[in-house]
Sequence to fold (326 residues):
Amino acid sequence: MEKILVNNNIYSKYDFSKEKDLENKIVEYSKEIFGKDTIYIDIKKKISKGEVIAIPDGYLIDFTFENNPRLYIIENELISHDVYKHIGEQILKFGVSYKDSGHKLKKVFLEYIEANKDDNVLINEKLKKSKYRNIDDFLEEIIFNKKVGCIVVIDEESQDLENVLSQLTMDTDIIVFQAFKNEHNYIYKFTPFQDEIRELEESSSTIDVEELDTIVVPAREEGFNRVFLGENSWYAIKISSAMIPKIKYIAAYQTAPISAITYYAEVSNIEKYKDTNKYILYFKNKATELKTPIKIAINKGIAPQSPRYTTINKLKKAKNLEDVFS
Fold:
């Protein structure tokens, strides 16, 4: 059984016995999980199209990208449940039915936001910087004119879940939320929604997240030569769904002993990779070699261990790896 040691206290993995127990924690820690620039709408409202009926666990309005806010349907689940019936079927129903219930949802969202002071303040602050005339105009846009995504919050990831989500057309992100318990207390383990983007916002980086267009991936020698250079693609990459339309370039950070960004390529299209919820990026042309490899200057901890984002302008002007992400 997995354990966590914190301040000389050992916490053991705790399995939620009821989905409602998990859901209560998601609502309680929604800002920590989804981000301060989000509104979690804790309402189970039926959406339907004909005989197709779905009841999401909640909804999320995300302002991570202020110029492109987005609506997500939330599905909170336990891995002990049947992922095909409880998750796959539900998300399929969401995708089919949400637009037919759009006007009902808009009314519910308006009532919820008006009744919650902090959310009302947040959305009005965001709208002041946006192209939208008012809240009504904004909700109309994110419900009817933009692609709605789905976020599955679950206590454990599995291959079956990956297989199910790979078959669906609805953009779906997974957040694994786990609890650990000792005799007196609980602690919780999770990777925040769009954490790689939030890290940029919370750091001293000068990168405007609205301008992100390049993904930097770590690559070992064999895979780099065979796939990045040989197949003009790179695959099995975990990417938040909101970043999919923004990525225009990919750069390879070759791991030790090279330890540098050496090549980049323009991306032609992005697709789901086999039976997973990860992606494959295809290049327009063969990758371009940088005249001077971009290496670490001082901070060895800046070397990418997983995909990271930047802009192509930053990449081309960078003298060292710190410049790429600062």
